[in-house]
Amino acid sequence: MNELAFAIFVAYLASIAVIAYYGAKRTKTIADFIAASGQLGFWTYCLLMLGSVFSGMTLIGVAGLGFTTGWANLWERVIGPPFAIAFGTILIGYKIFSIRREKAILTMQDFLAYRFNDQKVLRAIAGLISAITCFVYLIGQYTAIGVVSEVVLGIPYWIGATIAAAIVIGYVLTGGMFSTAWTTFLQSILMLLGIFITVPLIVHWIGGFTALNEGLAAVPILQTQLGKSSSFLFAEYLTKPFAPYNVPLAGWVYNITLFGITVPLGLMVAPHIVNNVLTFKEIKYTKWGPIVLYVVGVAGIMLTSIAGMAARVAWAKGLVEIPSINLGGMVVKWSDMAYPTIAKVALPYSLFVFLLPTILAGVMSTTDRLILTAANNVSYDIVKNVLKPDLSDNAIKWISRVVVIVIGFGSFLIALNPQPMLAWIIWSALALMANCFLWPILGGLYWKRMNKQAARWSMIVGFIVTAITFALFGKTIKLFGVPFYSAFPGFIASSVVAISLSLALSKPAKEEQRILERIAK
């Protein structure tokens, strides 16, 4: 075990625990626990949003994607997570600000129940689907924690994941949204500093930006010397903005269905992201906040992908060996090791050991938000508002804490047998989010004809079709011989249902008309 890295790991977790303690002291009411009573300041909100999307997927998965496809998935960095949080703040946060305090809206389900005048059925459907999608998303976060712990710390995957899971679950249990927001503030700063400092040094080590691109162009030839074919892992497309339409993952059709639809739209309406836009204090934050979120987001995600590209060049030149981790017969795909592996070679040791808190900060800042969202879905949205409306705030908090433990450790246990490539499980969760929540949320905000039947059935159909498609075809489905990301059929199905029912059914009743007029102001 690396003693210095382990000491930094312990110090990082201790700092998080102290901040979480003060967040717990600030939490007095159920509104504090769920949404920080809408009192987050500008930078706390911005860093909460960045921390909620910069996760194990970004720091491990995006670097792995950069290793695999180079510039061919550039669009994921430009219109992916940065687009989602910036435009989510504008399109959802700004639009809903005036009514959220008046109607005590604490969760996405509160809004849907109010907008469609459906306090029971729609709320229950949305709450259940939200909890499921958060659960799936969590599995990928724990995988990233375990991978980094083994590569950087030299401790077994399961030990690193267990320690981090216990800390996150502990502070979410005690402090709710205030603990989550305040710890994420520190975690986001650490994460961004780590990215902005380490990646330029990695690029310098590889010879500079020009040498990086020249190296990518030479990869098809270089990797033949390693016993691989010249086309191995999309090598011929590494320097292109996308591959031909008939190529999976790197092709332009796949780019549109995965990085043009699933990732940006799924993240924009993801339960943990939508619930974030209910926490900021002043509407003026929606003016400059999106600019900060987009600029910092694009810079951060672009740099992590460049780290993966640098690792691809270094590997092709024989300068690094990207390892695999065998976990009980499941091999974690080697591209996911790209960032920490090249950092270990390219960075001074004193700087490399700080990569652990950098990546952990990204992972844990998303993990805590997902756990809290899923717990609130069950305790507040389903138990309190659907099953037992007379339940006290104290009872809600205790139920939420039980759910935190169940969801937090349940998803952790599944993560002990991880998926071969981290990115795929995150993208599958985003597929469910986009296909279940896009029309009820954005349609509910901007289309007067959108009604509760359309909202209900678009969620149900979107969930069922997406789940079946992934179960039958995996991550790729071919339509007329062209590879599409498997989220596409569910997106079409939910859209057809939402539009058809909205147009076919009568206009909203008078009560719903008044609600629409109130939202439109």
Q: Mean pLDDT across all residues, rounded?
A: 82
Largest sheet: 2 strands, antiparallel
Helix content: over 70%
Order of helices and strands: HHHHHHHHHHHHHEEHHHHHHEEHH
Shape: globular
Spatial strand order of the main sheet: 1-2
CATH topology: Sodium/glucose cotransporter
Assign the CATH superfamily.
Sodium/glucose cotransporter
Q: What's the CATH class label?
A: Mainly Alpha
- Looking at the overall shape, the CATH architecture is Up-down Bundle
Q: Which regions contain 5 or more consecutive residues with pLDDT less than 50? A: none
What's the structural domain tally? Answer: 1
* Radius of gyration, whole Å: 22 Å
Task: Write a structural description.
The chain is an all-alpha fold. It has one domain (3-415): Up-down Bundle (Sodium/glucose cotransporter), CATH 1.20.1730. It contains 21 helices and four strands. The strands form two sheets. It has a two-stranded antiparallel sheet. Strands 3-4 form a two-stranded antiparallel sheet. Helix 8 (121-153) runs antiparallel to helix 18 and helix 18 runs antiparallel to helix 19. The longest helix is centred in the middle third of the chain and has 50 residues, at 157-206. The radius of gyration is 22 Å and the shape is globular. It starts with a helix and ends with a helix.
